[in-house]
Amino acid sequence: MVARQEIRAILKEKTFLLLLVIFIGMTLASTYIGWSSAHTIQSVYDSTVSLLVEQGKAVPPPPFEGASHLSLLKNMVIYVVLIGALLAITIGHLMGIRDRKAGVTRLIFSRNITKRQFLLGKVMAILCVLGSMLAAALMVSTVSSALLSGITFTDVMRIAGFYGFALVYLAGFAFLGLSFALTRKTSTLALLVPLIIWLAITFVLPELTSALSPTASLNPTLPQTDVLQSPVLSAIHTAVYPISISEQFKVVTENILLVPFNPAITRSFDYPFWLGYVIVPLWTIACLAGSYITIGKFNQSQGELNE
Amino acid sequence: MVNILTTLLEPTSGKATVAGCDVVKDSIGVRQQIGYLPESVQLYGGLTVNENLEYFARLSGIHKPQRRIAEVLDFLHVSYGDKKVSALSKGMRQRIGIAQAIVHQPRILFLDEPTSGLDPFGVKELRDIILKLNREFGMTIFMNTHLLSEVMQTCSRIGVLSHGQLIYTDTLANTLKRFPGEESLEQIYLKIEGNGNNGQ
Questions:
Q1: What is the pLDDT of residue A121?
Q2: R_g (Cα) of chain A, nearest Å
Q3: What is the ipTM of this complex?
Q4: By a Cβ cutoff of 8 Å, what residues of chain A touch chain B?
Q5: Partner-chain residue, chosen from B32, B47, B100, that has the shortest CB–CB distance to A107
Q6: Helix, strand, coil shares, percent, chain B, to 5
């Protein structure tokens, strides 16, 4: 019942609807942008090859040799990390804060509902909304990829795998938003704290991992050898990489979508590529556990916001 | 006290039972038998009256609440079921507050300062509803209020709380008999409160 009520309510929230439209719009745009970039690079390559053949010079290998059709969706990985996570926090926040803002928590908990059942309802609503949103994105990506480059059944399964993993990743952010929405005394603080955590995960931690490989970050071509780094930077890499959740997500999903790795980024770490398959679900479980602890401490008689 | 009896707050010491159910050990048992109207009635402003009532009815385990909601609204003479709660006046919201509290037909109804913020007309309307609920449906009403005139016109049994202690409890009729020299309930209250504070 709580889940149904939450889903009905969130569909009336303007902030959520706006972010949803942006997310779906970017999903559509990502395929086109990927296709457009690939098309441009291929055209330049074709012209160059013609010129080189005329001059009798050696022809370099094609730029997308061995690359999957799905590499067109590479931008989606970034959109999930940026706008998707923001949307997930918003969903969790709105679902957690709504009853407190309306001042109905005392009415709710004077009914036949325990705090655990209340939380379960919220979690189900979050998963349902996120799942529907990602299912819509899956359809958009599949159709647009099929139209622009042609895809196989295996490709569709890979896209589904990508969005499935994105659901796990985003659910963590939604639970984070929910936890703070249930505990903070003001709605501003309840939104600000998860946003700061999102900023740290999305922008700060990557600065301490992949962005510490300046050559790899600046040079779009794949280096043939490992880039040498200072021991200090390597030590920071090694320490921060396992907890750099957004990086783990990128590595896993690029692997699912068969986007070629940049060896300068990935090979320099002492960790296997599958680490993200463990770290990201752990992150989500930790956030869910946080919500569970939070609801246990929730004061039913003084649950309303102080604003 | 109301927070403890409605299971919203666990007592730090002592024991309380409502309708035979312990408020700590069987809080769900208590909740199944009570209705609650907080001092300041808050509902989902963005939802209509019907949507609010449907939600709270379902939370109380009523799977198809439409008919029951119609009955309750009819009983309370509410004709604005399709209006959003945010568009209602304080008095109208108070009625909807009562509707949500009785929609699941509780045995006991807890009213926390129910007349707070109401105009005299609203106070009279509410008093009539309370009396009707008790007389027609046999519902026990637990009401806490600072308006002793309301107590006089509504209650059959009273209790006096002073500094967290229940210092007096009896029927209203017995109380009036016990203090024959006092002109009003206010004077009786002051006497009880004075005795209580003096440790008598």
A1: 94
A2: 22
A3: 0.85
A4: 1-2, 5, 9, 12, 98, 102-104, 106-114, 300-301, 304
A5: B100
A6: 45, 15, 40
